[in-house]
Specification:
Layout: E1 24-26, H1 38-45, E2 54-56, E3 77-79, E4 102-104, H2 116-123, E5 129-130, E6 133-134, H3 137-150
Parallel strand pairs: 1-2, 2-3, 3-4, 4-5
Antiparallel strand pairs: 5-6
Length: 163
């Protein structure tokens, strides 16, 4: 809270209460390793934190996708590239975000996992840009094929009592 924001291209507008009138938050190139207290901080900084649409957390030291990000239902752009996120399964947390359209994850150790791009596209079918590349019909087809070959469907159990 005591840090002065870097100057951007345009001057930042503020409300009468002194809070920022913005829908984006750029916290890139820091040494953040967790997002503890994130909701509290954005409520102190932003006039309308519920309208947050773009968060840049690139080039930090995050090792996971913090669940706090899944509470931001207007989030459409999320940059997480250049962090230390290991597990590809972390992406599952983002599936709840209805407006997420652009995501970056390259430069994280998870990128080395086999089927990285296909897994993300299967898990987040609404995104249109991934790692700064547009998602094509061919990408979607490849992701569906990969999903059929690699992700086992959940077995449906029929209760004996119902028969």
């Amino acid at each position: 809270m005591s840090e002065e924001p870097r100057k951007g291209q345009r001057p930042l507008k503020h409300s009468k209460s002194g809070k920022s009138l913005t829908q984006s938050l750029w916290l890139n190139n820091n040494v953040l390793n967790e997002l503890k207290g994130f909701n509290h901080v954005i409520s102190l900084l932003l006039q309308h934190p519920e309208n947050l649409a773009w968060i840049d957390l690139s080039f930090n030291d995050l090792t996971s996708i913090d669940p706090v990000l899944t509470t931001l239902f207007n989030l459409s752009v999320l940059y997480l590239h250049g962090n230390s996120i290991q597990r590809l399964g972390e992406v599952n947390k983002l599936a709840i975000l209805p407006r997420l359209r652009s995501l970056t994850l390259h430069g994280n150790p998870m990128e080395e996992e086999k089927g990285y791009r296909q897994y993300v596209l299967c898990t987040l079918p609404r995104i249109t840009t991934f790692d700064f590349s547009g998602v094509t019909k061919a990408d979607r087809t490849a992701a569906e094929v990969w999903k059929r070959m690699n992700i086992k469907p959940k077995k449906v159990r029929i209760k004996q009592d119902a028969l």
